[in-house]
Amino acid sequence: MSVRWGLIGASTIAREWMIDAIRANGGEIAAVMSSDAERARSIARDHDIPAGVDSLDALLGSGVDAVYISTTNDLHHAQTLAAARAGKHVLCEKPLDLTVAGARDMVAACREAGVTMGTNHHLRNAGTHRAMREAIVAGRIGKPLFARVFHAVYLPPHLQGWRIASPGAGAGVVMDITVHDADTLRFVLGDEPVEVAAFTQHGGMGAQGVEDGVMGTVRFASGVLAQFHDAFTTQYAGTGFEVHGTEGSLIGRDCMTQKPVGEVLLRTAAGEEHLPIDRVNLYERSVAAFHAAIRGEGRPAATGEDGVRSLAMAAAVLESAATGRAVGVDPQI
């Protein structure tokens, strides 16, 4: 059975990635919603979507089975609750909400309504990160001790907007990028963050009060220590993800990206080996898992609970930067 989707938010990510990913998995897109009626109609016309609407009620009443939410972060909560009440499955962009309590409400509402909920954390679907996770599970680097994430990039002008100017909408690099680091670290390490210490930076891109850079350290339940560096302001930095263990190191390069690119080097006493990497589209893998979960076959690639946990670490990062102290990560989901 084909899944009929409604797009809540006429976003760049919907246009550039998710429309094609849904269709590649046999899904139909029945409607797109934007608060700007002309924008909704334009997106619908350009992408061969039957309806462009400017109200949530109209979209939820258009015969859709599932919704993909990619509006600004402050709108996710109310839109998810409305979709759950209407019996629609929900795939929501990260962060789920501006608060951990709000994210928990979203997960609970979907659970009570009996609908599938996922968080669109794309990086755990990358072949690079999956290869690293598999190598760790197989014991190829021994006991993991340290991890490092380099996710400092340059936010292009067409994506800046509210991300650097609207604190009330969830602006800032922590809610936009660090939340991805949190999920990817959890996925690759198979571990949970318990405490963070961080400093934020205002490098000139973000509006007053909006951080555009951050560095910090995370302590995981197993004792692993992880560093992270995220920014909107670095035009020439490469991205990477490393895990160092007692018997070897995994060194990923150019892997913190939406594209199925990057390499992973395994370095041990036996020498160096480039791990085989699949090049599956990250969003197509996400939608495939979500469709399977709707059919009762497994779980979304990242569940609603995963979204709560990544947000909890991001919230702790912001609190640490504001208070100048290490902050525990809320373990409740």
From TrEMBL:
Domain Gfo/Idh/MocA-like oxidoreductase N-terminal: start-end pairs: 3-121
Q: Which UniProt keywords apply?
A: Oxidoreductase
Indicate the secretion signal residues.
Answer: none
| Statement: the UniProt record of this protein carries the keyword Oxidoreductase | yes
**InterPro entries on file:** Gfo/Idh/MocA-like_OxRdtase_N, Gfo/Idh/MocA_oxidoreduct, GFO_IDH_MocA-like_dom, NAD(P)-bd_dom_sf
Tell me the Pfam families matching this sequence.
Answer: GFO_IDH_MocA, GFO_IDH_MocA_C3
Q: Which protein, by its recorded name, is this?
A: Gfo/Idh/MocA family oxidoreductase
What is the species listed in this Swiss-Prot or TrEMBL entry? Alsobacter ponti
